Amino acid sequence: MMYEQRQQPLMNRADRRKINGERRNAIEEERLEVVDLSGMSLKTLPNPSLNLATICELYLFNNDLQIIPESLTARMLNLVVLDVHSNQLKSLPNSIGCLSKLKVLNVSGNLIESLPRTIENCRSLEELNANFNKLSRLPDTIGFELVNLKKLSVNSNKLVFLPVSTSHLTSLKILDARLNKLRSLPEDLENLINLEVLNVSQNFQYLETLPYSIGLLISLVELDASYNQITTLPDSMGCLRKAAKAVC
């Protein structure tokens, strides 16, 4: 399940206020499965009286939110998609771990410095997009728990390394860690038997070597390790499938 960001059309203030009121009324009156409060310049979230457990998709992108209340995510037990990209969030609530059915989480374009360890409880998660934040590390055991994760996108952060447990994400198809400060990659990458795309480009002066295991990725179709300080490639690169595209 690969997810594309929804785009919000431009509108004037009068139109926005009108839609603002209509959306809030709908939330209060209906048992909605999809709630879209994107592009409304929200600084705080409304406190709806509806049963939040009915909501499957929640779109809050392009606002000015600084926090997501713990009580909100704790009550959205059937949530499948949560999109809060392009806000001012500095952290995520610990109660995000209550979202056991969550498949898509987009928190890109915020100010987040770390992900709560409770995110490991989101075991249905298939796509995690945390690009353009201030992440300096990921939870150490993230790879042991998110066994269904297919896409991990953490480009444009401040990551110095990826957790060793990353090599246990056996469902992973896409790993995008470009534009960070990576100094090395985990060993045992060959365990990522479904990985098709690996992008670790533009870590510039920080990344100097690639692990031997990178050439043992049996499903790899595209590898981008350009714009780093890599001077020697591992011998295993010759083992990559003939159709694989490698830029180093």
UniProtKB/TrEMBL annotation:
Outline the segment boundaries, as ranges, of region: Disordered.
1-22
Claim: Metal-binding is one of the keywords in the record:
no
Listed name of the protein: LEUCINE-RICH REPEAT-CONTAINING
Q: Which SUPFAM superfamilies match?
A: L domain-like
Annotated keywords: Leucine-rich repeat, Repeat
Compositional bias (Polar residues) at which positions? Answer: 1-10
Cellular-component GO terms for this entry: cytoplasm
Basic and acidic residues composition bias: residue spans:
13-22
